[in-house]
Design brief:
By secondary structure, the protein is of the alpha/beta class. 63% of the residues lie in helices and 9% in strands.
Amino acid sequence: MASRPKITLSGFLKSYRILKYIKPYRWHFIVGMICLVISSSMFMIFPAAAGEMANAAIGKGKWNIPVQQFGLIFLLILIVQGLLSYFRTTLFAVVSEKGIADVRKALYERLITQDLAFFESHRVGELTSRLTADIEQLQSAFSITLAELIRQIVILISGIFIIAWMTPKLALTMLLTFPLIVISSILFGRYIRGLSRKRQDRLADTNIIVEESFQSFQMVKAFTNEHFEVNRFSKSITEMVDISLNYARMRGLFFIFIITVLFGGLFFILWRGAMMVQEGSMAVGDLFSFIIYTGIIGGAIAGLGNLYTALAGSIGATERIQELLDRDQEVQVSDQLNANSFRVEGNVEYQNVSFSYPGRPEVEVLSNISFAISKGKRIALVGASGAGKSTIVQLLMRFYKPGKGNILVDGKEADSYNLSDYRKNIAIVPQEILLFGGTIRENILYGKPDASDDELMEASRKSNSWEFINTFPNKFDTIVGERGVKLSGGQRQRIAIARAILRNPSILILDEATSSLDAESERLVQDALDTLMKDRTSVIIAHRLSTIKNADCIYVLKKGSIMESGTHDELIKKENGIYKSLVDLQMEVGE
C-alpha cells in the first residue's frame, strides 16, 4: 500500500520554484484570491443573519432590522457572492490553464531534448505520467485545491471568531470537545480507507493471477499446472476475504463511533445551548446560528485533512516535474531554430575507438576500432548480433561519446561541431520504420519541413514511392495510421528513403534497411537506396549479400573488434574467413 504523501520543507521549497511559470499571471491569481477571501467571508454572514432573523421574528433582535428586510439582505449577499465566485473561477482558470500549459510545454521540451541514455534508463510510461498525471495534479492544485484550502482556512478562522464573539461560553465548550471528536473521526476514517485500499490491492492481485493464467493458457496446459493455478488463485482469494472481514469489523466500529461519540458530542453541545436559552443567557436565534457555525467549522476541519493530502500529492508531483526541468539538455531548441546551414563533406575516421555503455561499464562493446571512409564512399559493417555494428553508428550520430579514441569528420573531432548542425548532415534508414500517424506528406516532410511541393514530388519519385502513392485517392494526404500500419513494409521503407532524400545528407546510414522485405519489395527499395547513396558517404549495416556486395569496403566485426576488411571479391577469396562463412551460409539457405 502506498504511503501517504507528506509536506516537507525541502519539497515545498523545490515546488516553490515552479511558480515562475505562474508569475506572468500573478495579478489574475492575486485578484482571484481577494475575490475568494471576500466571498468566503460573506458566506459566514449567513448563519448570523439567519439567527438574527429568528430573533427578530420573536421580537428579540439585536440589529434593529425588520424581518421583511432580511430577504433583501440575503438576496444582495447571494448576488455579490455569486459575482465574486464567477470572477474567482475565471481568474483562477487563466492561471491554471495558461500557467500549467507553459509548464507542460517546458517539460516536453526538456524531455525531448534529453540524450539517448536518458530514454534508455526511463520507461516511456513513466515519462508520459509526468506529462499527464503529474501535470494534471499540479493544475488541480492551482485551480481547486489551493483555493479550497484558503477558503476552508478563512471559514475556520472567521467561524471561530464569530462564535467566540456571539456566545463565548458555548464556544468554549465546543472548542474543547468538538475539534477533538472531528479529528478522531478523521483519523479513524483514514484507517478505514487504508483497509479499503489494502482490500482493493489484494483484489487487483487476484485479477493479475487470472490475467496471467488466461494469457499463458497454453503454457498452463503444457505443464499440467491447472491445480497449481487454482491453488494460487484460492490462496489470494482467501487473503482478500480475511482483509475484507477485518475491513467490515472496523467499519462497524466506525459506525458505533459516529453514533455514540460524534453525534453524542453534537447533542451535548446542543443540550448546553438549550440550557442557556432556558436560563435566558442566550437567544434562540443565537443558538440557531451557533448550530450552523458548528457544522460549518466541523466541515472545514474535516475538509482540511483531505485538502492536506491533495496538496501534499501536488507538491510531490511538482518535485518530480522540477527534477526533470532541472536536467541538462543535450540540444537547445533555440539552437536548432538558429542553426547554421553548414555542410560537412563526409570524410569519416575512427581512431582507436573503444566504448562501453553507461549502464554496463564492465562490458566493452567496441575495442580499439580504427577505419576511415572517404567522401562519397560506401562501407558495410557485417557480423553476428552483438558484434558492435549498431554501436559504431550510434557513436557516429553522437548518441554516445567514445570511451577512448576519437571520431573525426572532415579532419575535426565530431564533438567539436554544434550538435544540431552536425546531425542535420546525417540521415538514417532503419530496419524498423516507425512512421508518425499523420499523412504521407507529413512523414516525408519530416526530413525537411520547409520543402516545396516540387521537392516533395522529386523525393517520392527517386525513392520509388510515387507509383504507390498515386494509387491512393488522397495521394500525399493519405493517412498512414498509427506507426504506419496502413502501409506495407516496402512502402514504409520507401517513405523513409524519400524522407532521407529530402534531407539531402552528406552521411547516410542504412541499418538493415531491406532485411524484412520480400523479393519484389527489396528490388524496389534497393533501387531507391542506390539512388540515395549516390555521391554520399554511406555506412551500411546488413546481412544480405545484395545490399553489401557493391560496398567499397566491408568490415567484419566480432565481439567489438574488426576481424577482416576488404571488398566483397577480396574477402570471398579468404579460405576459412568469417565473411566467406557468412556468405556460404546465406547461399545454403537460398539467399
